[in-house]
Automatic annotation (TrEMBL):
GO cellular component assignments: cytoplasm
Entry's Gene Ontology molecular function annotations: ATP binding; heat shock protein binding; unfolded protein binding; zinc ion binding
Signal peptide annotation: none
UniProt protein name: Unannotated protein
Listed GO biological process terms: DNA replication; protein refolding; response to heat
Organism (species): freshwater metagenome
Xref: InterPro entries: DnaJ (IPR012724), DnaJ_C (IPR002939), DnaJ_domain (IPR001623), DnaJ_domain_CS (IPR018253), HSP40/DnaJ_pept-bd (IPR008971), HSP_DnaJ_Cys-rich_dom (IPR001305), HSP_DnaJ_Cys-rich_dom_sf (IPR036410), J_dom_sf (IPR036869)
Keywords: Chaperone, Cytoplasm, DNA replication, Metal-binding, Repeat, Stress response, Zinc, Zinc-finger
Pfam families with a match to the protein in the record: DnaJ, DnaJ_C, DnaJ_CXXCXGXG
Length: 366
């Protein structure tokens, strides 16, 4: 009795996948279509028999226990796997279409914060596949059309009877004359070489809605690549990349701005005009404002996508402490401290009451 494991070149502990892989490799080398030599055909029969036994759990168990060799050509359930190894599952495939749908395309464009907030329109130039203007997608020269393949009679495949261990088998393969299309282009279009499409640069108008942000994609149906044979075009996706603003920081629909004020202005209070996306805005800094205090300007933030309303603009106050003082300035500050009953070097440790921590949490950490 032949050693089926040795025949396939695998160990006794080989998995089902390993057995199938080894069989397919040997079968492709030994199949009668490749090697018509009688000795090779006999070897192919042995390999097929070994696979039939080892690929079936019950047959393999009996074989390992020294049972029947399962000789002959009783392929049983293993026959479909054998056919898969050569013919990809068997069955008629028919001619494959020349016309196929095109692929989607992706292009990224940069927008500034103002454009992202209020929306805009852009002209973009893309290089893509378009229908060939010469043949209008047929791939043929001078108004001609593909002709039925004489080799396969339009079926896109040819059939052949081959001898195997189970007798004569009818096989189907893509027609070599027409590459499986079932038709041939005798005179290809010189512009597209029979593809039915050519590369071309085109300008497209893109409407960018208010409220977009980095990562948002605008889908433009039918503006992607035209398919082979002049097939329907895919979609074009325009992906938004938002540019960094000079002093405004975006957090979703909220805008943040840091505003530096002098120690005197923070103590006495003041009104400061700042430039927002809507133009000049007056910011009222109340007397005694502390560093880190947020001032909320309603509805001056980003537009909410597909809603139209606006988020808020939050001004974060940063009190500037002088780093260099003249002798006169130092004297004045010490007198000021004495007038308030404070010591010049006075400081206190503050507990986690949530004040400073809540103000700082999440600010500019994006």
């Amino acid at each position: 009795m032949a050693d089926h494991y040795q025949t396939l070149g695998v160990t006794k502990g080989a998995s089902t996948d390993e057995i199938k892989k080894a069989y397919r490799k040997l079968a492709r080398e030994l199949h009668p279509d490749v090697n018509p030599d009688p000795h090779t055909q006999e070897k192919f029969k042995e390999v097929t028999e070994a696979y039939d036994v080892l690929s079936d759990p019950q047959k393999r168990q009996s074989y390992d226990m020294g049972g029947s060799n399962f000789g002959g050509a009783n392929f049983g359930g293993g026959f479909s796997d054998i056919m898969d190894a050569f013919f990809g599952g068997g069955g008629s495939r028919g001619p494959r279409p020349r016309t196929r749908a095109g692929q989607d395309s992706l292009i990224r464009i940069q927008v500034d914060l103002n454009e992202a907030c209020f929306g805009t329109e852009r002209e973009i130039t893309v290089e893509s596949a378009v229908v060939c203007p010469k043949c209008t997608g047929t791939g043929c020269l001078d108004g001609q059309h593909p002709e039925t393949c004489l080799t396969c009679k339009g079926r896109g495949e040819t059939q052949q009877v081959v001898r195997s261990v189970i007798g004569q088998v009818m096989t189907s393969r893509p027609c070599n004359a027409c590459q499986g299309y079932g038709s041939v282009i005798k005179s290809p279009c010189r512009e597209c070489a029979g593809e039915g499409r050519v590369r071309s640069r085109q300008t497209i108008d893109v409407k960018i809605p208010a409220g977009v942000e980095t990562g948002n994609r605008i889908q433009m149906s039918g503006r992607g690549e035209v398919g082979a044979g002049g097939g329907p075009a895919g979609d074009l996706y325009v992906e938004i990349v938002e540019e960094r603003h000079e002093y405004l920081v975006r957090d979703g629909d909220t805008l943040h701005m840091a505003l530096e004020v002098t120690m005197i202005a923070a103590a006495l209070g003041t009104t400061v005009t700042v430039e927002s996306l809507d133009g000049p805005v007056d910011v009222n800094v109340k007397p005694g404002t502390q560093s880190g205090t947020p001032i909320v300007i309603k509805s001056k933030g980003m537009t909410r996508l597909r809603r139209g309303d606006r988020g808020d603009l939050i001004i974060h106050i940063e009190v500037i402490t002088p780093t260099k003082l003249s002798k006169d300035e130092e004297k004045i500050l010490r007198s000021f401290a004495e007038a308030r009953g404070e010591k010049a070097n006075e400081a206190h440790v503050k507990g986690q009451d949530g004040s400073i921590f809540s103000k700082l949490k999440g600010v500019f950490h994006k």
